[in-house]
Amino acid sequence: MAARVRLSAEVRRAQIVDSAIGVIADDGFAAATFARIARRAGLSSTALISYHFTDKADLMRAIVGAVFAKAYDFIRPRMDAQSSPAAILHEFIVASVEFYAAHPQAIRALTAVRGNLRRADGRPEFGPEIHDPELAQLQEFMHQAQRAGEMATFDTRVAAVSLRAALDAAALEVSRPDRTDPARYARELARLFASATGQKAVKP
To answer: Between 1.10.357.10, 2.120.10.80, 1.10.10.60, 1.20.1250.20, what CATH number should domain 64-196 receive?
Structure first.
């Protein structure tokens, strides 16, 4: 008989989160019971989930954190490799859409969690403020591009919020089974943003 492998707490948590993402993506938020997640993860008991997560809400928060961290690890190095503010923003758009297309289950699960998880008072657990740090950084990149003459003068808050909303829509579009070609979508969205911000040189 083969010896049973004991997973580290970090690996076990990641296994549970991945299984929860799969259940939500395939069957919906309401279907994500500990019993179904345990079956998908191949766990012998839901107690193994309860050991790592206080309740369903705690597990759902972990899903959001995991997807955001995975997106950051995918997108940020691509941005850091660019040499100008305008190029950084272009790569942010393209890499974001590519991430959404590469991880459709994660995107569907994230969307479901954000749309359904509520606090005790009924308010969404994750409201628009979840994007505030990202919006602030996008605005700073835009300010830098404006100072460098790479973009026209415009309200960077309006532009950053609009770009974030466009990317949220892109996430839904390219994670669908009958999705638009992700590469084409990324290219056209980047071109649209470049035109709207008055960039002098638009990447093909």
So the answer is: 1.10.357.10
